[in-house]
Specification:
This protein is an all-alpha fold and about 220 residues long. It has 8 helices and no strands. Helix 1 runs antiparallel to helix 3, helix 1 runs parallel beside helix 5 and helix 3 runs antiparallel to helix 5. The longest helix is centred in the middle third of the chain and has 34 residues.
Amino acid sequence: MSLLYFLLFLGTTECFLLLAMAYDRFTAICNPLRYASIMSKKLCAWLVAGSWASGMVLSLGQTTLIFVLPFCEDNQINFFFCDIPPLLRLACGDTFINEIAVFTAGMLITLIPSLLILGSYIHIITTILKMASAKGRQKAFSTCSSHLIVITMFYGSASAMYLRPSSSYTLENDKFLALLYSIITPTLNPIIYSLRSKEINEALKRRVTSKWFHFNC
């Protein structure tokens, strides 16, 4: 039970934190002169606290609904960890309410934030294209690129995992999606964000060039 709760809690919190980061980039690019006054320390603290609180409440509700179900004698999950879809397969009772709850939570956690992020990036891209300086446009796109990559990977895999009927669940696809959003994406996050650093880019180029030179020799 605790494993499922913390899995949902951390995943839900990350969804809302990505939304908060999208608002931060929207403010920085679309309202640069007011950025310091809008993104105050107080607002940042509220955004982070709200993300953690939302993750805590939604995860507690999902975990409670799962573990009031009657389960069959088979208590072994053919999965990497304790997640909602494989647990629903083991349940002996009616899981209709659980499926509705999972779909509703998925809407709140992935679909609605992704639509808000999409709207913010439409404004961001419109603002960037209006910039007169090519260097300014390049810098602005560079600021958003890493965030967009992480959003696409995380929201895409999480939406495919939870925003679908249980009849479409397949073990192979579920394992791949779970591996993508729970292990691969968090592992790649620091790499993706660090590529914005000029020093790291230069070190990476030197490393690749050195490897290529030794390989050809």
